[in-house]
Write a structure and sequence with these properties.
By secondary structure, the protein is α+β, with helices and mostly antiparallel strands. It is built from 3 helices and 6 strands.
């Protein structure tokens, strides 16, 4: 009985540790979005990323550098000043992050789909509307 209790304690500790680790990864990513630090954001992109940006033709399977550049261009073109996270949900090895990009009087919706990989959480899809 004592061994089962120890095993359950260890398993619950491991689950809580991985949840905190994933949350720290997303908080770092969000901080890079808030400060428009695209040099640091580059490491969060998957090798191929689906990018859908307002008023642009849907683009699929962009490289990490191209996806980063597309989002940077949107920030520059629309004078995006920051990012406010509105929700974050974890389903298995997938994390959804939604929020608002603040650009003066305008606000744009941002949705990120993240997945766990060997290098941690990576962005596999970004949508700005």
């Amino acid at each position: 009985m004592h061994l089962i209790r120890k095993s359950l304690l260890i398993i619950s500790f491991l689950f809580s540790f991985t949840a905190v680790f994933a949350q720290n990864d997303t908080e770092s990513l969000i901080q890079n979005l808030q400060t428009a630090n695209f040099n640091n954001l580059l490491s969060y992109w998957d090798q191929e990323v689906e990018v859908n940006i307002l008023d642009q033709v849907n683009q699929k399977a962009l490289s990490a550098a191209d996806a980063n550049q597309q989002v940077r261009n949107f920030f520059n073109k629309n004078n995006v000043l920051g990012f406010e996270k509105t929700a974050e949900r974890k389903l298995g090895n997938t994390v959804y992050v939604t929020g608002k990009l603040i650009a003066g009087q305008n606000k744009y919706s941002l949705t990120l789909l993240l997945q766990n990989s060997k290098k941690g959480l990576v962005i596999v899809s970004v949508r700005i509307s």
